[in-house]
Amino acid sequence: AIGLSDRVKSIAPSPTLSIDAKTKQMIAEGIDVINLSVGEPDFGTPEVACAAGKAAIDEQFTKYTAVPGIVELRKKIAAQLKERLNLDYTADDILVSSGAKHSLYNAFMALCNKGDEVILPAPYWVSYPEMIRLAEATPVVIETDESTGFKITPEQLEQAITPKTKVLLLNSPSNPTGAVYTKEELAALADVISKHEFYVISDEIYDQLVYGVEQVSIATFGEEIKKRTLLINGFSKAYSMTGWRVGYMAGERALIKAMTSFQSHTTANPSSISQKAAVGALDHKDELMVPEFRWRRDYVLDRIAKMPMLSCDTPSGAFYVFPNCSACYGKSFQGHPINSCDDFASLLLEHAKIALVPGSGFGAPNNFRISYATSRDNLKKAMDRLEAFMLSVQ
Ligand code: PLP
Asked: Which residues, judged by CB distance below 6 Å to any ligand atom, belong to the binding site of ligand 1?
């Protein structure tokens, strides 16, 4: 019968979107909801980036560019990777795409065959399992929790590896947990990786948003690992450029070349204007965002620590905290039972007027995600509401 492809039919709707839809509906009805579910900085795009974007339009830089992105941008990205992470790449080792999400999709499509396994540490960003399935590969989930700071151990990795393992996905700093792997932890994982034959997709999109810790890339642990690593990053988070859609991948030239061919037949170059804006963004040195995010993280953690039945690990990066609400399971709020993080999030939205994302979509049924990419005022109001709610859970 006529109908959609199995591929598309198999995609689970984004769990963040249903909360988002309900939140927007409530706001449209004039209800004062505080939105702690957003995945983008509340800061503006840096002026240098905006100016470069405007200049691109004025100068008619509005046509197709080279598929992997303009050389000027790729050179500058390579220079930044050298400066920030001490990694040696040239412009030819970089493929610029329409957002890091697009880079990730290119990577999975180019690396995975049907039946290949992708090792995916949980909690994971919601799009990874769907992208893996779109590439007809199988996600092999490694569960983690607060006991290891939401990080996988070398033993867990070793156990998850099979002859079908094609890719290990790493995301540090992590969405949704904010966890950042230390140099020692990565070195131990690199030891395991180097004993086997598979690729590493290292999503480092939050790499500039770290608080008092060093960001280290798995690609720095020797030539062999670097060759097998596809480093993913982009401009959305570090430069508040979510709408411009610029992300990139750095990796071995042969892989980049293959993915460039793939991109040439699917989307071709990312927006010429956005690429110019990204060139501008790389001149921007943040002085406000990181200290502000750090303040807010500390504020939220401090408030949550004083609330009954919630506990929360201290994340070192990104702009999320990921509290554990499982102590509420089996209890209720004003007669409404709380048996899951979904119940918890729905009740919070309806009764406390706070929108946040339940952990279920991230493979973490005991937790929920708070994004602190919103004003201090909003955070204070939200924490007051959350506290009042928690005090009524019995
Ligand atoms: N990777 C992670 C872990 C993310 O959280 C996001 C955005 O939420 C992305 C990648 C995609 O970013 P973009 O496509 O905007 O560059």
From this structure: 39, 99-101, 125, 171, 175, 203, 205, 234, 236, 242, 247
The pLDDT tens digits of the residues spanning 255-288 come to: 999 999 999 999 999 999 999 999 999 999 999 9
Ligand 1 atom closest to 318 (CA): 5
Ligand 1, residue 40: give the atom nearest the CA. Answer: 8
CATH superfamily name and code, 6-31+287-392: Aspartate Aminotransferase, domain 1 (3.90.1150.10)
- Reported as a pLDDT band with limits 50, 70 and 90, residue 15 is low
CA distance 151 to 122: 9
Pairing of strands 117-122, 138-143: parallel
Residue type, 370: I
| ipTM for the assembly | 0.99
Looking at residue 7, its amino acid is: R
> Measured in angstroms, how far is the CA atom of residue 96 from the centroid of ligand 1?
14
Both tokens assigned to 270:
């990312």
Q: Beta strands of the chain (E only): which ranges?
A: 34-35, 94-97, 117-122, 138-143, 165-171, 199-203, 229-234, 247-250, 320-321, 331-333, 336-338, 354-355, 357-358, 368-371
> What's the CATH number of domain 48-281, 3.40.30.10, 3.40.640.10, 3.40.50.1370, 3.50.50.60?
3.40.640.10
| pLDDT digit string, tens, across residues 228-251 | 999 999 999 999 999 999 999 999
* Nearest alpha carbon, ligand 1 atom 5: 175
CA of 234 to the centre of ligand 1 (A): 8
| Spans of all domains in the chain | 6-31+287-392, 48-281
